[in-house]
Amino acid sequence: MEEPEMQLKGKKVTDKFTESVYVLANEPSVALYRLQEHVRRSLPELAQHKADMQRWEEQSQGAIYTVEYACSAVKNLVDSSVYFRSVEGLLKQAISIRDHMNASAQGHSPEEPSPPSSA
Q1: Are 69 and 63 in contact (CB under 8 A)?
Q2: pTM of the model
Q3: Which residue stretches of 1-119 are H helix?
Q4: TM segments (predicted)?
Q5: 119 falls in which pLDDT band (50, 70, 90)?
């Protein structure tokens, strides 16, 4: 009869011991220590990732600025096509006037047939 009683007492002791170990393992100071260990291990890697992300953000911002500037330049070129057409018309007109003046200086007009020479 003593054996079941001893088993019961042994079970109570082991249960209490397990509970004590569990409480000690999960005590707040132990939890804070484990948290500190985790932070100490992972912080350098996280800091490196943060620095990489900041560098990539700066590069991205520079690329975005470049693309926006290029788009603006292209838009300005498209908007200035009216002026280019105007300049083209003026150049054609100037060439026509020059040709007319050259023809007049030579004594005949390119639009009018040269008069037959009478001798």
Answers
A1: no
A2: 0.43
A3: 2-25, 28-79, 81-106
A4: none
A5: very low
Rounded distance, CA 103 to CA 81, Å?
A: 33
**pLDDT tens digits, one per residue of 80-107:** 888 889 999 999 999 999 999 999 988 7
Structural domain boundaries in the chain: 1-77
| Token representation of residue 76 | 């300005």
pLDDT for 8-65, tens place per residue?
988 999 999 898 888 877 777 877 888 889 999 999 999 999 999 999 999 999 999 9
Question: Using CA atoms, how far apart are residues 24 and 17, in angstroms rounded to an integer?
Answer: 10
| Of residues 43, 17, 89, the one with CA closest to residue 25 | 17
Q: If you search the block for the tokens 């008069």, which residue do you land on?
A: 115
| 33 to 21, 26, 38, 39, 46: CA distances (angstroms) | 17, 11, 9, 10, 19
